[in-house]
């Protein structure tokens, strides 16, 4: 295979003729319920570039929604997957197990925060990991209620739709949802701070507000689990105020409530730590892991305290494909790559680079209300000039301008006004800064 040139290049207008052709086929063949961010079809990807079928090379600031963190088709993953496919593709771990599954669990038990005895179970998707974490928490506590937070995103299956906060496009028309799901207020420093300065900066205060709602509306005696993203992903890359997570965790420990960290988007070196919980010094009871774990092969996990995760009866957890051997081989190669190539440190460098560039942009442009995030998970919240009112229209225009200029960038946020950056950690500084420069130019023109 020829190496992929690490430069942005527009060979045609975006989308080009071959992508337009494929889009016609897609419209005829693929359910219109499946949305698409950018109407270009991928041909190859690696480093910091996605090449489309028309020969356009796009700067990748999305990593397929935080999945190809170690770079697309990462060399060790390619080798490991090839070797595993040639040996066997599937036996089902529940029928005749294989070493790769066990080895992935050993690594996860080692890599996740917390020194006590831990165990893991493997599944296919982020949503499936969340569903299983809740099954485990219910089995362990003998209680049923689950609390999730404002702006939360946990998936699109029935239970996880119920846990996800935003109606459009995730839930609208798809109910009824599972019972015993409750919602508590999050710590959202930028928006809390507009209302009450202390609340914006003091995570303990924000946690007390949430605990009060939980106490009054659910009661700890009924609550099996508290489920939270340590940095919210789809909800807007919201980093809670310091102390918020630790205060919630301490309350959970006092009340026999299982604290589940959904690290599906934040995990696996993305935030400048192996897991985002490390930044807050907390050790969750259970952690949901997916996305970056296997460089795009479908794999997810629940890892946590042995006492809790062993609570379900034998055969209470499982699934045909969970911990597929090819996905496990990819995960082992991913872990090796992160550790040998120092990618956790690389994510921290990317944070410094991006925050420097974006804060300078913010200083000159009051439509950038907030710059936030950690590691290679950085966002800007766009507002109407001179206000804090969300500006989803500006966000849409900026993103479509970026797409036309060959920069793959995504949005998020309850109000649709957050531009989020999730570059692969293998992107060069030059490409990363070029991507941000393109955005800055488009923003200046709008
Ligand atoms: N938990 C924190 O970010 C997936 C979803 C994109 P699955 N986020 C991207 C979309 O529009 O479907 C996600 C997440 C967090 C759970 C999930 C769900 O992971 O692998 O998509 O099921």
Descriptive notes:
The chain folds into two domains: 17-73 and 342-445, Aspartate Aminotransferase, domain 1 (Alpha-Beta Complex); 76-340, 3-Layer(aba) Sandwich (Aspartate Aminotransferase, domain 2). It is globular. The chain has 446 residues and is α/β, with parallel strands linked by helices. It has helices at residues 17-29, 63-66, 75-87, 99-111, 126-141, 158-163, 189-195, 197-201, 203-217, 244-254, 306-309, 325-340, 343-364, 392-404, 429-445; strands at 42-46, 49-52, 57-60, 118-123, 145-149, 181-184, 223-228, 258-262, 286-289, 300-305, 368-374, 377-382, 407-408, 410-412, 418-421. The mean pLDDT is 98. It has 15 helices and 15 strands. The chain has a seven-stranded mixed beta sheet with strand order 4-10-9-8-7-5-6, sandwiched between helices. It has a four-stranded mixed beta sheet with strand order 1-2-3-13. The protein has a four-stranded antiparallel beta sheet with strand order 11-12-15-14.
Keywords:
446 residues, alpha/beta, Aspartate Aminotransferase, domain 1, Aspartate Aminotransferase, domain 2, 4-stranded mixed beta sheet, binds ligand PLZ
